[in-house]
Specification:
By secondary structure, the chain is of the alpha/beta class. The protein is 31% helix and 25% strand. It has two domains: 171 residues, LarA, C-terminal domain (2-enoyl-CoA Hydratase, Chain A, domain 1, Alpha-Beta Complex), CATH 3.90.226; 232 residues, LarA, N-terminal domain (Rossmann fold, 3-Layer(aba) Sandwich), CATH 3.40.50.
């Protein structure tokens, strides 16, 4: 069997003997919406449990539209659509002028967008016509008070000052938030570093898991933060493995998001027969494999199909290296995985939370990385290194034997593998 796996903007070929392959785990075959522009207009005209955005905007002067950062992979524009322009049309219809509409990039604790990233993601019309601001978790944040957890909700003042507050983004499974999209645009999207830190420090909680919303303390706090922040309108999309939009939801934050995450779960849920020795997991190419930090979703999805002591072969270009300096430093400075796992939640910082989550996986499985990250940088951080996929297969055979059994995940960051279907 030969399969080309995305690697940055190119591909790497996996050649696997038939005896070693259990299955290729992929999303259900689904077609993208043929006319995205028309579907969006229909969603905006008949929002879920909400007034039209144009009606919400009537009598208001200013608006803030939250947009996802480039690492989220939200397809804001295509050859014949731009998801953001119908939103601005609705705001204009309500009487809000161009100069009073601001787009706030939900970078969370990530770096600011470059001008090119704004153009590539949101389109020339948006960037030239409106002010596009990258959220800074260190500056210009305002306290809305404390959540029931005691966490102070520090949120971008651009959002606080707006009369109309709109959230956009992509719904996918998320390894500790349950699902991305919806309320996640608030926390961590546009909140202060300490608010994010305390939320993400709950990664040590046993109920934190992929595709889990209720009872997941991280997700529950995100819900509460969005309620306090006052989201007026939501537009989210779900995509298939070709990055085509398959579902658009618009309207009330909670009601629209629930429709969206249920559609996402139904599409991304991939049954598998048995647990494997090895999984060859591709992060899905750029921008999902821009760094090791961004590849964590793939790692956490891949672990679900493995026997204890199995091996994840991660195929991820990582052109920006490990990614988060804090994540890299925490892994480097830890004397053992147990040290990371026993970290006091009060001391877990943003970036450090991913190191702790990563330690959970590394404690149970080997992670062999095919990337542009140097061997010594990986091995100092508890990972294994392979120069390429052929070398990775050789390594796997030495550990598991010639008859190892494996799955392949071409879009490891998207799918939700499950032995039993969810009710």
């Amino acid at each position: 069997m030969k399969i080309d796996l995305k690697y940055g903007h190119s591909y790497r070929r996996l050649k696997l003997e038939d005896k070693n392959l259990i299955d290729i785990l992929q999303l259900k075959k689904s077609s993208g919406i043929p006319d995205v522009a028309k579907a969006e207009m229909e969603a905006l005209a008949s929002p879920i449990k909400s007034r039209r955005l144009s009606e919400i905007a009537k009598g208001k002067k200013t608006a803030c539209v939250v947009v996802s950062d480039f690492t989220r992979g939200c397809p804001y524009q295509g050859s014949n659509f731009n998801l953001l322009l119908p939103i601005t049309d609705e705001l204009h219809a309500g009487g809000i002028k161009d100069e009073e509409i601001k787009f706030l990039v939900a970078t969370g604790a990530h770096r600011a967008h470059t001008e090119k990233e704004n153009l590539d993601n949101f389109g020339e019309v948006i960037v030239k016509r409106y002010e596009v601001i990258s959220h800074d978790c260190e500056k210009n944040n305002f306290s809305l008070g404390r959540l029931s957890t005691g966490n102070e909700l520090l949120i971008d003042k651009v959002w606080v000052d707006a009369d109309v507050k709109v959230m956009t983004g992509l719904i996918t499974t998320h390894y500790f938030g349950g699902f991305s999209g919806g309320r996640k645009g608030i926390l961590p999207g546009i909140t202060g570093r300490e608010t994010i830190r305390k939320n993400h420090a709950m990664i040590v909680h046993p109920e934190v898991d992929i595709a889990k919303t209720k009872g997941n303390p991280i997700s529950d706090e995100m819900d509460e933060a969005a309620d306090m922040a006052g989201v007026d309108f939501l537009l989210n999309v779900v995509i298939n493995d070709k990055k085509q939009i398959t579902k658009i939801v618009a309207g009330d934050l909670k009601a629209a998001f629930e429709q969206g995450w249920r559609a996402c779960r139904d599409l991304y849920l991939v049954p598998f027969k048995e647990k494997a020795d090895v999984v060859f997991a591709c992060a899905g190419g750029y921008p999902k494999d821009v760094s090791l930090y961004q590849s964590q979703k793939t790692i956490n999805n891949a672990k679900l199909v493995l026997k204890e002591g199995g091996t994840i072969v991660l195929i991820s270009e990582c052109r920006e290296g490990i990614g988060s300096e804090t994540f890299a430093q925490w892994l480097l400075e830890a004397s053992s995985l147990d040290e990371l796992l026993n970290t006091d939640p009060a001391k877990i910082v943003v970036g450090g939370h991913t190191a702790v989550g990563n330690a959970k996986v590394l404690k149970r499985f080997d992670i062999l990385v095919v990337s542009e990250i140097p061997k010594e940088e990986l091995e100092k951080r508890f990972y294994q290194h392979a120069e390429g996929i052929d070398q990775a297969i050789k390594w796997v055979k030495e550990k598991h034997g010639e008859n190892f059994r494996a799955y392949v995940m071409p879009q490891g960051g998207l799918i939700y593998p499950c032995l039993d279907d969810l009710s």
